[in-house]
Design goal:
4 helices; 2 domains; Arc Repressor Mutant, subunit A; Bactericidal permeability-increasing protein, domain 1; eight-stranded antiparallel sheet; alpha+beta
Length: 153
C-alpha cells in the first residue's frame, strides 16, 4: 500500500526500524541488517533507503546506500555529542542536539564545540527545559535551503 508522498507502509516501517536501531546501537543499520530484519532482498531495502532519502525522511551519504543522517541523529561524529542516560549519540547540529532529547522524551547532556570559536560548551535538557548559559545559535541558511547542502548547513 502506498501512503502520501509515494512512500509505502513498508518504507515507513523500515524508517521506524532505522530509528530504533540507531538509538539502541549509536549507529544506523546497514541495508543488509535491515534486509535480514524484514526478511527482504537487500536490493528492496536499498531502494527503500533511496525513496526515504528522496522524500527527506533520511539522508544517505552522497552516491551510496549508507545512512548518514536520520534527523536528528548523525552516523558520523560531529561537534554535538548528546548523552542520554548511558548512551552517547551524535547530533547533526545545535538544533538537532535539542531534537534528540525531544524525540526520546528524555533528559540529556550535550557537549558541543562552537563552530566560530572552537570553544567547548555544555548544556542540558531537563524535564523538557533547556539548561544553558545564554548564547546564540546561528543558522547560515534559511530552513528552505538546508537541503541544498545538508552536510554543511
Amino acid at each position: 500500500m502506498t501512503m502520501s508522498g509515494g512512500l509505502s507502509d513498508q518504507d515507513w516501517a523500515i524508517r521506524l526500524h532505522i530509528y530504533g536501531y540507531f538509538v539502541a546501537r549509536g549507529r544506523p543499520p546497514t541495508s543488509e541488517e535491515v534486509a535480514s530484519h524484514f526478511r527482504l532482498e537487500e536490493a528492496e531495502v536499498r531502494a527503500a533507503f533511496h525513496r526515504l532519502h528522496d522524500h527527506h525522511a533520511l539522508f544517505l551519504d552522497p552516491g551510496t546506500d549508507v545512512i548518514r543522517m536520520a534527523n536528528p541523529l548523525s552516523a558520523v561524529p560531529t561537534a554535538y555529542r548528546v548523552r542520554v542516560g548511558d548512551r552517547g549519540l551524535w547530533a547533526n547540529c545545535a538544533w538537532d542536539s535539542l531534537g534528540i532529547p525531544a524525540m526520546l522524551d528524555a533528559d540529556a547532556r550535550v557537549e558541543a564545540i562552537l563552530p566560530t570559536t572552537g570553544e567547548a560548551v555544555n548544556y542540558a535538557v531537563e524535564k523538557g527545559k533547556l539548561k544553558a548559559d545564554p548564547f546564540v545559535v546561528h543558522f547560515p541558511l534559511p530552513f528552505a535551503r538546508w537541503y541544498d547542502d545538508l552536510q554543511h548547513t
